[in-house]
């Protein structure tokens, strides 16, 4: 399973790159706003910086919701860097735009997926990735992981090349369940990736090893 980091924070991206396990980055307009990135020039320059830091796909989301606007923004984003994946919302004009980008060889990530039907539609339109939002489904009492399972099964039934990018992954058990279910990618905050490091028995075992070594080497 590929690990993407879900942030626009350059320091966090750098830390994940240095850990040596990062395969890509996803951003969204809320994450860009959180970093205080505003205005087209600043946004474009920020995406370029992220692409130069990471050897992998970087999702950059369009703001337009009409077909022409999505195409215009998506083409400008795709021209920035070969790592750019144009992130397009699951709306009617978004699906049409995904078909257009797919025919032009521009990679896409269809975002805000909350049902298997939406994922199927995006895959048929030629999306490179679909992003089902696990955490936001859990937030409303639905089962985010059931959706991952459904999409993985459907894509496997028909051999769709579209990758399942589990998004809104909020904690370590989410990440592990995505891996068990066969999601191609999970995107999550840095804290979830580094959360995989920890186990109390590892800490306890290491402390014992170091203490025993010290006892006979002093
Ligand atoms: C995915 O691409 C989104 O940026 C993200 O995973 C949303 O996560 P959230 O529901 O924790 O905001």
Q: What labels describe this entry?
A:
218 residues, alpha/beta, TIM Barrel, eight-stranded parallel beta barrel, 8 strands, 56% helix, 17% strand, binds erythose-4-phosphate
Q: Largest sheet, order of strands side by side?
A: 1-2-3-4-5-6-7-8
Question: What is the number of helices?
Answer: 11
Work out the radius of gyration: 19 Å
Q: Cα distance, first to last residue?
A: 45 Å
The molecules bound to the chains, other than polymers, are:
erythose-4-phosphate
What is the makeup of the main sheet?
Answer: 8 strands, parallel, barrel
Shape: globular
The total domain count is 1
CATH fold annotation: TIM Barrel
Q: What is the succession of H and E elements?
A: EHEHHEHEHEHEHHEHEHH
CATH C-level class is: Alpha Beta
The counted number of beta strands is 8
| CATH superfamily (homologous) name | Aldolase class I
Q: Beta fraction of the residues?
A: 15-25%
Structural class: alpha/beta
Query: Mean pLDDT, rounded to whole units?
Result: 98
Specify the CATH architecture. Answer: Alpha-Beta Barrel
| Percentage of residues assigned to helices | 55-70%
